[in-house]
Amino acid sequence: MKLHWSPRSPFVRKVMVCAYEAGVADKFECVRSPVAMDKPNLELLHDNPLSKLPTLVLDDGFALFDSSVICEYLDSLHDGAHLFPAAGRERFIALQQQAFADGLLDVLLLWRQERNKPQSQQRPEWLAAFAVKSDASLDSLDKLAPQLRLEAIQIGDIAIACVLAYYDFRLPDLQWREGRPALTAWHACFAERDSMRRTEPGGGE
């Protein structure tokens, strides 16, 4: 198998953290696949017509995307404790937490894109809306923090840890920790996991 990969993509990082936690990171090859809005990657386009990362190509050529699908597939490749609960309310809580974190990442990616425009081209109403969504999400996560795991972790914990790490990497000026002690304490512990340390971003876009 091969994984279309970038060292700075937060969605790729979520997949890689899952792979290390599940013990299956050696089952696929990471292929560096740069992506840009104005220049589609033709090799990636062949496997994923959306030209988005991450994309996992199985040995038979079938391609899986997006990150949530890839993470669940990787979690099916081992017999240990699973990151995705099998059924019931626990499963839907984990899936909802993952969707929440992924949705917040989408907001942050768009926010960063808007912030990177020349000031004359930025839309203040958009920037204000992104800020409101970010603050509301972080406040909600701080209330959720006592329920987040440091042992027997699940996909929701991984996704939330990755979005908080993205704040630190790309939007450190937002200082997400201020006024959120429970979330800060949980993330400080989670960030010490080997899977998080091994997937710290770097090296180009």
UniProtKB/TrEMBL annotation:
Xref: InterPro entries: Glutathione-S-Trfase_C_sf (IPR036282), Glutathione_S-Trfase_N (IPR004045), GST_Omega/HSP26 (IPR050983), Thioredoxin-like_sf (IPR036249)
GO cellular component, one term: cytoplasm
Domain GST N-terminal: from-to ranges: 1-82
Any one Pfam family match given in the protein's UniProt record, by short name: GST_N_2
Gene Ontology molecular-function annotations: transferase activity
Protein name (record): Glutathione S-transferase domain-containing protein
